[in-house]
Each structure stands twice: as C-alpha cells, then as structure tokens.
Amino acid sequence: MKVFPAVDILGGNCVQLIQGKKDSATIYGDPLTFAQSWISKGAEAIHIVNLDGAFGSSEINAEKIKTVIKETGVEIQLGGGIRSLEDARSWLDTGIDRIIISTFAVNDPDCLTILSDEYGSNRIMAGVDARQGQIVVNGWERPAGDYLKWAELFIAKGAGSLLYTNVNVEGLCKGIEVEPVRLLTSRVTVPVIVAGGITNPSDVSTLRQCDAAGIVLGSGLYSGKITLEEALRASS
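^ that's the sequence the OP posted. Answer follows.
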C-alpha cells in the first residue's frame, strides 16, 4: 500500500486545515521544503492540494507547485480547484503523474471520459469526498448523492482510480471510520486511495486490510501523532 504525505498549499505556504475550513489553517512553511523532507524520510510519492484553487483562485500557487514537481522527481498527484478541461490539461501537461477531479466530475462526469481518452485513465483520479454517505462538492458544502453510486459512475466514465476522503473525520486526528472504506473497496475494481482521520499505525494497517491501494497522511503526520516511518512500516 502506497503512502502519500500531503503537501497542502494555501497562499504559497504548506498548511493543514481542520475539516477543510480555511480559517483553521496551521501554517508550516515552504511546500518544497516539506515535500523534500518527506522524501528524505522514505516517501516515494506526494499528494498536493492546491487549497487556493479549491477556494476559487487556482493560479495563485501554480509556480510553487510546478517547482515541487520539477525538484522532487517522485510520483505526484494533485487536486484542488480543477474546474475545467483547460485546468486539467494544463496540469497534466506539466508532467504530473495524476490529477484529482472532484466537483468538476460531479458537475460534468463526461470530463473524465474526455481526459482519460486523451491522457490515459491511469492519470485521471476522481475525488469521492463523502459526509454521512453523501458525496459533497463545492468545498464540501453541497451534498450531491450516494457516494457509492457516484464512485461507480466515475469509473464507468473513465476514472482510473479514486481518492476517497471521509469528511466526517478529516483533520480531526481521532481515527478512521472503517465501514465506508470497506463498502467502497468491495464495490469497485480500481485502486482506492484513502484520506481522512488516519492517526496511528493501527489505522494504516486496518486500511491495508480493507484493500486500500494507498493512504494520504495529513494532520496526523504534521501534528506528530504518527510518523512517516511508522506509516511506511504499517503499510507493508
């Protein structure tokens, strides 16, 4: 199971939010410095979220993100504010390994087909952000229906993988909710990366047993509740 340390970027800084709320940001510093730090500790992949993009200003962090892509040379997946085919193509053309499309995929599922046809389905990940079993979009503000049905539609439309984020527990550092993950991984045939609530090695081991293909480590990692080394050991 692959471990993706998160490098969430807001206003040019690496930050962590609680429950996706902008005003909850804890600022950590330079995104490239943190990406390189995680790589030096064994990470082979990085998960980047362009938080300014998620809040409606997709260009603010573009140069910072391109620098991380260029300087690290590891597998990178990117999400946050990709709301058009033009946005998606511009990121894919940088050579990034994979983009994550969430709100745009709900509003226009055919975008997944177009992009997977052009770039290959392995580079197109659909974001399944869920609260109480409902997919939520527009910065996790609007519920849009059953997350399992959306996941199946995203795959039918061409997504080569899914990022499942449990909004109920995201950023709280109180552990995972297992059943929604188990339901999803048992229902789909593509790799599922899981985010939200991962706080200790036991959470990592449980997700591996649920057939998750990978995990994203955010607040638990940055707060020191789990180390990258512990997560890597529990993931193998």
